[in-house]
Amino acid sequence: MDQSLAIRHQALREAETKAELLFSRIEEKGIIRSGVTEKDINQEIYELAFQMFGIKKYWHKRIVRAGKNTLHPYRENPPNLVVSPEDIVFLDFGPIFEDWEADLGRTYVLGNDPLKIKLRDDIEKAWGMGKAYFQSKPYITSSELFQYMCEVAREHGWEFGGTHAGHLIGKFPHEEIQGDDIDNYIHPENHKRMREPDQNGHPRDWILEVHFVDRKLEIGGFIEKLLTVE
Predict the structure, then answer these.
(1) What pTM was computed for the model?
(2) 48: buried, middle or exposed (CB in 10 Å: 19+, 13-18, 0-12)?
(3) pLDDT at 60
(4) Cβ(192)–Cβ(144) under 8 Å?
(5) Which helix (H) or strand (E) holds 38?
(6) Cα–Cα distances in Å, from 181 out to 76, 147, 211?
(7) Residue 47 in 3-state DSSP?
(8) Tens digit of pLDDT for each residue in 118-141?
(9) Which domains does the chain have, with CATH numbers?
(10) CA quadruple 104, 107, 108, 114: dihedral, nearest 10
């Protein structure tokens, strides 16, 4: 690994580690709870992130989704819901640490509903399967990985809920650097090899997203984290 790539990976790893610390603190403080709205939780997390790291800047909108809103992919903006005692809830936050982007998503289950617990556990397992598949295929394309994640969803009894299964990550703002087009996403129509360099000859790093849903039960689960950085 050349020095510039090593520095890049260290910065991305440190950004994700700080995001993981934030999520751990969210759990410790019991912020994800019933009787409050998604927006209430969002604001509490924003305030906690500022207290912990001085974070005011996020490279994408902060998402807290509960109940039937967990069916909706990132680009949608469903109505604000009150979290119920037996809800499933997911978070998707993209804080910026010293100009490096983090992007972390996790799912939480309030109560003991076995199907919601299975969904939470299945997306964790599926993420690991996706990473193993990526690592086993040196010339894998984004479309191949997307199709594989859809197959994994079906194997576990779910539907893949997103229009893509992840995206590029890097120095803020990566979308201006790379261009906000299909080549940035693990998308069914992106047939470029994921390990190919960008248009400037620089290596690309990826986030892998898993969003499984059951539309009849009106529940979804979501997880995302760094795919290409150990």
Answers:
(1) 0.92
(2) middle
(3) 66
(4) no
(5) helix 38-53
(6) 18, 19, 21
(7) helix
(8) 999 999 999 999 999 999 999 999
(9) 3-226 (3.90.230.10)
(10) -160
Tell me whether strands 104-109 and 159-160 are parallel, antiparallel or unpaired. Answer: unpaired
Q: Which two tokens stand for residue 109?
A: 């289950």
| Structure tokens belonging to residue 155 | 């194997």
- DSSP H/E element including 118: helix 114-136
The Cα 24–Cα 52 span in angstroms is 12
Amino acid at 181: D
pLDDT at 177 (0 to 100): 45
Nearest to 184 by CA among 201, 166, 200: 166
- Is residue 225 within 8 Å of 208, Cβ to Cβ? yes
Residues of the chain with pLDDT under 50: 177
128 residue type, one letter = G
